[in-house]
User: Fold these one by one.
Assistant:
Number 1:
Amino acid sequence: MRATTAKDVDQVALAVSPAAVPVAMPADWRDFFALTKPKVMRLVVYTALCGLLAAPGNIHPVLGFTAILCIALAAGGAGALNMWWEADIDAKMKRTSARPLPQGKLRREDARDFGLAMSGFSVMVMGLAIHWLAAAFLAFSVFFYVVIYTMWLKPRTPQNIVIGGAAGAFPPLIGWIAVTGEVTWMPVLLFAIIFMWTPPHFWALALWVKPDYAAANIPMMPNAAGEVSTRRQSLVYSALLLPLSVTPWLIGETGAIYGISALILSGIFLALTVPIGLRRSVEGDGMKPEKKLFAYSILYLFVLFGALVLDRVLAQWGVIA
Amino acid sequence: MTPEEEKEFLRRRKSRNAVFGLVLLAMVVLFYAITIVRIGQQ
């Protein structure tokens, strides 16, 4: 056995000295904020607000603000729970590797507790201050996104985003129920429009980040069923979105402002999906049509729901029939 | 903990506490407003 030297003693001392022990820094508040997926939340808040403004009847501005805040908090909580569950997967994907958990900025259980607290708090406030039916739908939307989509469907089936897309379709429905306290055909149609919009929107992204999903072993449609099948299915969903988006006008629930806007916007959506549905990508082609559709699909939802609110508000003010 | 790490530790804790305090304050104001509105509606 080698004799212990003064150098060995120094190294041991260095190894146990406080300066050498890794310091567990408290997470910055921005890391918690990043857990809420702020970019996704923008669309959630906007569609919920449009559902609330387009609904017949009135809601006090304070209660309307509270309803939207609850929907935003629930969406943020669901986003945090999604990141908690998928921290290992996020670390493998370029698009998500900069999130707080893969970067080690937060403890995983802190993200879980934060998500549970936000979701639970938002449902309670929605129930106590607004309406228990709206609270029930809010609770179900969080459950659907976290348990049905994130934990169950996403790692198992390429239909994950088709069925899971329902989670993102709830906000306008909940916004509507917050005002009316009941479920009618119109909010169900708004739900159906976002449901039908989700697959071509998400698959446009999935087509160009296909290697990422393959690395994370997630069976997204392009990886599981192939590019050709994904492209054709995107085309089918876009074709179905066109008549569905104008249905509120055809059944007399909205006026021409919404109807004509829906026809034009969905027509452009379909026109952008046709080349995607018919083409096959080649190495290094930049996936420009897919990126264009993805960007347009976000604009589509913003303008479509904006037209809906404009139409309904002008009708309520008696400006249009 | 080095002085730099301690400084960063305290900065993060302080900013988190400040944000937490602001959120709590906003909640108090919101709950007060909700209560007034709900009472007014009865």
Number 2:
Amino acid sequence: MSDMDMEDDGSGIVKKFMFLNRKAPHGTVYALEGLEVVLITAAFDQDVSLVFTDDGVYQLMKGIDTKGIEVKDFSKTYRALDGYDIEKLYVDQTSLDARGLTEDDLIVDVSVLSDDEMKNLMDEQDVVISF
Amino acid sequence: MPMVNIAGKEVEVDEEGYLIDLSQWNEDIAKYMAVEEKVEMTDNHWEVVNFLREYYDEYQIAPAVRVLTKAIGKKLGPDKGNNKYLYELFPYGPAKQACKIAGLPKPTGCI
């Protein structure tokens, strides 16, 4: 897709999409597939929020080493999201606390939300997709 | 997956000709891919190809063209980080063609 042919033809409806990442990065394909969907959505200029909750917070851990399990370490790709204009990343305090993690353990800057704030954020969305 | 012989070395490519194993990449492979894509490599082409390899190394993805354009602009200046310049170098899509030459997978979300 190129910026040159992005003329407004009336189809430029922007919806609020939330992608909810709930699973550990490896062992299932959810995290990687979820990330691909997010990158594709970004190409359509939608309003994207990315939430990492439950074991999903592990996706953002610093220092992931996948050599032993012979799969690609895509955790670095979260740092490219900024370049895709995806800047709204959220984590909930409850999930961090339950796993003994803090913001400093994460590879990207996130907003840490309380349960109530997360609930409100979900309420505002047009579409919520869970991985 | 098809195998091709490049400068005496068997390498595996996908059905669209993208290199399967990134670690096999070398200049011979880049030149072979460039011929396939009918691109005549100049220093300016290499600059983009090397930029893409660095980008991949850092982020583990092949960027979409919009993202590539912006990232090149940031690093090499606005006279290179624009569609006109990049499409002149790679007429069939800078992300698509340059990624292939750089030995990267086809960009995610590339249509």
